[in-house]
Automatic annotation (TrEMBL), chain B:
Keyword set, alphabetical order: DNA replication, Nucleus
Entry's Gene Ontology molecular function annotations: DNA-directed DNA polymerase activity
Regions of compositional bias (Basic and acidic residues) in chain numbering: 221-234, 445-462
Bias kind Polar residues: ranges: 176-187, 235-245
Region (Disordered): 152-196, 212-395, 429-484
InterPro entries listed in its UniProt record: POLD3, POLD3_sf
Localization (cell): Nucleus
Species whose genome carries this gene: Zootermopsis nevadensis (Dampwood termite)
Name of the protein described by the UniProt record: DNA polymerase delta subunit 3
Main location per the UniProt record: nucleus
Chain intervals with Low complexity compositional bias: 291-310
One GO cellular component, as annotated: delta DNA polymerase complex
């Protein structure tokens, strides 16, 4: 599903900006999973995105999960209702030990005219992928038998609609409790701040001090 | 490399690796510091040996494989280095590829991302190579600008040679006016001279003439002046025709009173030239009236003048023939030219009609003469296509102007597509020219004078007769040669 993003027209709609972000999130999530070694590396293959090789999972269940998550996120992004997207890693006791946070600071509605061909944007995303690969060495390894989840931080109205709208029933989103969200004694490892023309994204890692 | 700079570079590397947590490849380092890649490799190695435990390395090894399958170039991690080296029978290269702080680099693909420079099109990779040439120095911007201007000037002069533009029109218009004022006979030679002078600018003038056609509409009254004016329109039309067909050439020179016909003799040449002129003039209806008056004056015989006038008038769209000839010669350009020609023709047609209506009282001689010659022209015109079709060697669909008089006595010129053979048309034109000469009609504009005309002024009539469909080149040469 990795597709090359090429904005064809100058008049970028809000919808398009969210598409780019979704693609980036997909790549990021796959790479995070690869870097954290939560799954055996054999399920990952090297694919090309933004002109650089990235790792992508080929496991169908995993891919389906990620895709469904992103579908919902996309719907909400178009309405600018998503504040954060997090990938949380839990240890055996279901305590979050690590969080990769994609903080969506701003999602501009109009494409920046300076970069109609998304060149700078791609470069920024490329840089993120590179940096992400490096962060693996800075983090302590995950404990064995860890699991992960994708979490959304949004407004309350959205959480209600997610629960009630029929199209989300196949892939239900459950409201999390605080224990499943916050990391104990977090230490923040910044990864990167992306500022493309039409979205600002901050990516950092919250690591538990007690891993 | 001096010690100071080495220290500086090592500091930089430390910054990149330790503080910014970058993966520093030798390529990236060389580009960033502006040093040779070998220097970069050595620096990285030095740095790594200094830091040792803090950093991790990747190596590039290459060589001939032991198992004889060929050669391989590989990037390996530090820990895999020895194992990789063992695979090679002959190790051709082994050097540090990158330095990074990360202990584990799970995917070496990221190294590609480091060196991936998508937007370095303008980067001069050769700048850092070890092979240098003292003579190859980048030119400064001023010099480049100067050279560009030179090149532009050269191309413009080259173009100007073939199709001079600009100042010519003014001259031509002035001359046309002066010509029109002068009486026919004496003017011819003098005008020829002037025309010749104008030769070089004539073509340019033609261009300008096209634009100035409308402006020159005024002094059309005199039949004498017709020739001059006809020259002008001829030139302008001639030029267009010229572009389209080389056959135009004889017309053009005559039009601008240049080389060929005008300069040569009076009677036969003039007649021929008149014919040519007439044809040229006919192209530009706008200038027709002017040209008629002007050019006809130039032409030797009054009859011819009148005939020219008539033909001019009749052949408001007289370009047809020329178009045909041009078409033959330059099929590629033909389309372009035809459009231009047709536009001018159309406009000229319109103008003529308009003028005919408006200036009827002003120019009694023209309409009077016209009817007489219509029959002649009508007689002369049809045979050409017929004759051409007879042989049918190389059929070309040409647009020809058919001039005829309708029931109201108005001269109408219609453009028709006629299939005629290329090669035959030349012969036909010769015949036509002869006819013209005999009849005193200058309808056959097609410039037969191609190569024959080249010999220039001496035998204009002969040339005219025998002038085959020339190539543009020939007509051009004629043009220039005729000019004194």
């Amino acid at each position: 599903m990795l597709a090359c993003v090429r904005p064809q027209n100058i008049t970028f709609s809000f919808l398009r900006a969210s598409d780019i972000l979704i693609e980036f999130l997909e790549v990021a999530i796959h790479n995070v999973l690869y870097v954290r070694n939560i799954y055996p590396t054999s399920i990952f293959v090297r694919r090309k995105k933004y002109g650089v090789p990235v790792q992508m999972s080929t496991h169908p269940y995993l891919n389906e999960y990620i895709t469904e998550c992103l579908k919902t996120i996309k719907d909400l992004l178009t309405k600018n209702e998503v504040r954060k997207v997090t990938v949380v890693f839990f240890d055996e006791a279901q305590i979050p030990v690590e969080r990769f946070i994609f903080d969506i600071l701003d999602l501009n509605r109009t494409l920046n005219q300076d970069d109609p061909y998304f060149i700078k944007g791609e470069e920024a995303l490329r840089g993120f992928c590179l940096k992400l690969a490096m962060t693996g060495s800075n983090l302590k390894p995950l404990p064995s038998k860890s699991t992960f989840r994708v979490q959304l931080h949004t407004i309350e109205a959205v959480s209600v609609s997610l629960a009630e709208e029929p199209r989300y029933q196949d892939f239900p989103w459950i409201e999390t409790v605080e224990q499943e969200t916050e990391v104990m004694n977090p230490s923040i490892v910044p990864i990167r701040t992306l500022d493309t023309g039409f979205h600002k994204l901050q990516v950092y890692v919250e690591e538990s001090g007690e891993k | 490399m001096d010690v100071q700079s080495v220290k500086l570079y090592l500091q930089n590397i430390e910054e990149y690796v330790m503080d910014e947590d970058k993966i520093v490849t030798y390529k990236w380092l060389s580009k960033n510091l502006g040093i040779h890649v070998n220097t970069a490799k050595q620096l990285l190695y030095t740095f790594a040996t200094e830091q040792k435990i803090n950093v991790n390395l990747t190596y590039l090894v290459g060589g001939v494989l032991c198992d004889g399958t060929g050669c391989k170039v590989q990037i390996v991690r530090e820990e895999d280095l020895e194992k990789a080296k063992a695979e090679f029978k002959a190790l051709t290269s082994e050097h540090v590829y990158s330095v990074q702080k990360a202990k584990i680099l799970p995917d070496l693909g990221v190294l590609y991302a480091v060196d991936c420079h998508k937007r370095d099109e303008n980067e001069d990779g050769k700048r850092l190579s070890a092979i240098t040439c003292s003579h190859s120095v980048l030119r400064p911007q001023e010099e480049i600008g100067r050279l560009r201007l030179k090149a532009r000037a050269a191309t413009s002069t080259r173009d100007a040679k073939r199709w001079p533009t600009g100042h010519a029109p003014s001259k031509k218009t002035a001359e046309a006016h002066s010509n029109s004022e002068v009486a026919s006979t004496d003017g011819s030679k003098g005008k020829n001279g002037t025309k010749k002078k104008e030769l070089n600018t004539g073509i340019a003038a033609m261009f300008a003439a096209q634009t100035c056609k409308t402006k020159q509409g005024g002094p059309n009254e005199k039949p004498k002046a017709a020739e001059n004016s006809s020259d002008k329109p001829k030139t302008s039309s001639g030029i267009t025709m010229f572009f389209n067909r080389q056959t135009e050439k004889p017309i053009k020179p005559s039009v601008s009173a240049p080389k060929d016909s005008p300069s040569s003799g009076l009677s036969p040449k003039d007649s021929h030239g008149n014919e040519v002129d007439a044809s040229c003039a006919s192209e530009k209806l706008k200038e027709k009236q002017e040209g008629n008056s002007n050019k006809k004056g130039k032409v030797s015989s009054n009859v011819k003048n009148s005939s020219i006038k008539n033909t001019e008038q009749k052949w408001g769209g007289g370009k047809g023939k020329r178009v045909n000839t041009d078409e033959k010669l330059l099929p590629a350009k033909k389309r372009k030219r035809i459009v231009v020609v047709s536009d001018s023709e159309d406009s000229s047609d319109d103008d003529v009609f308009g003028r005919d209506g408006g200036d009827a009282p002003d120019m009694p001689p023209l309409p009077e003469v016209a009817p007489h010659h219509e029959s002649d022209t009508d007689d002369v015109i049809p045979p050409t296509p017929e004759a051409e079709l007879k042989r049918g060697r190389k059929r070309v669909r040409k647009m020809k102007d058919k001039t005829y008089v309708d029931e109201d006595g108005y001269i109408l010129t219609c453009k028709e597509y006629v299939f005629e053979s290329c090669t035959d048309s030349e012969v036909e034109q010769e015949k036509e020219n002869e006819k013209k000469l005999s009849k005193g009609n200058c309808e056959q504009f097609e410039t037969k004078k191609s190569e024959s005309v080249k010999p220039v002024s001496k035998e204009p009539p002969a040339k005219k007769k025998a002038s085959p469909q020339k190539t543009k080149q020939a007509t051009l040469m004629n043009f220039f040669k005729k000019s004194i």
